[in-house]
Specification:
Layout lengths: L2 H21 L30 E7 L2 H9 L4 E9 L8 H5 L6 E8 L6 H12 L7 E2 L2 E2 L5 E5 L2 H16 L10 E4 L3 E3 L7 H4 L4 H6 L1 H10 L7
Parallel strand pairs: 6-7
Antiparallel strand pairs: 1-3, 1-6, 2-3, 2-8, 4-5
Helix pairs in contact: 2-4, 2-8, 4-8
Length: 229
């Protein structure tokens, strides 16, 4: 969906409604049955003994907000907006936006597992980065390119991700079923430069104010020990 058009609609229609929702403390995770951070994953929450570098890839709607969340997590070295899960190598934003390539707007998170665990990244992903109960959409954005997905790089990541989804489901954490796809990472392609650190560069854009800034507020409130400016 064209986000410039969405910004126009926001100015005319959505802003008054969004301000009410934000004021009431609602976010994209409105399907949650409890407030505050979700339970810690039973698997994958332990830190590594020594500094290292690992990579995780998540998709949760528009990559601008998801990237911004992980940019503010202690232990994350860098977060990169891009595309994963499709069949076309090095796709463009326009190609992915068509919904015909099979890609999802995704974020590659490069992190130090001695400072933040893969399980903690999953906890943040499900707690504040997006709503995992929205099928092929996220907020105002519709299409398979906005699906909820975890792209695992190895069997350990797959095991941790699937275990955590089962854990959240058993605890009835959400009022609707979790629809997050867990799929093997076939490749990650960085998005165009203008998409990188988009929230930081456009903090006052209406789309950002309505859809993404509340995620950072929630991150700082729910994970103050790991939030970083």
């Amino acid at each position: 969906m064209n986000r410039n058009f969405l910004s126009f609609l926001a100015a005319v229609i959505v802003v008054p409604i969004a301000l009410v929702l934000v004021g009431a403390g609602l976010s994209s995770a409105s399907s949650r049955t409890t407030s505050g951070p979700l339970n810690v994953p039973a698997l994958g929450a332990e830190l590594s003994a020594a500094p290292a570098e690992d990579t995780a890839v998540f998709a949760g709607g528009c990559f601008w907000g998801v990237e911004a969340v992980f940019d503010h997590v202690k232990g994350v070295k860098r977060a990169i907006s891009g595309y994963a899960g499709g069949t076309l190598a090095s796709p463009s934003y326009e190609q992915v936006s068509s919904g015909e390539t099979g890609h999802a707007e995704s974020v590659e998170v490069i992190y130090d597992p001695s400072q933040v665990s893969y399980g903690k990244l999953l906890q943040i992903f499900f707690s504040v980065a997006h709503d995992p109960t929205q099928l092929n959409r996220q907020g105002p954005d519709h299409g398979t390119q906005y699906r909820s997905a975890i792209f695992y790089r190895n069997p350990q990541q797959q095991q941790v991700a699937e275990s955590y989804i089962r854990q959240l489901t058993a605890a009835r954490t959400f009022s609707r079923p979790i629809v997050t796809q867990v799929a093997k990472l076939g490749g990650f392609y960085a998005a165009e430069d203008y998409h990188q650190h988009y929230l930081e560069q456009h903090p006052n854009q209406l789309y950002i104010v309505i859809n993404d800034k509340p995620k950072l507020v929630a991150l700082k409130k729910q994970f103050p020990d790991i939030y970083t400016d």
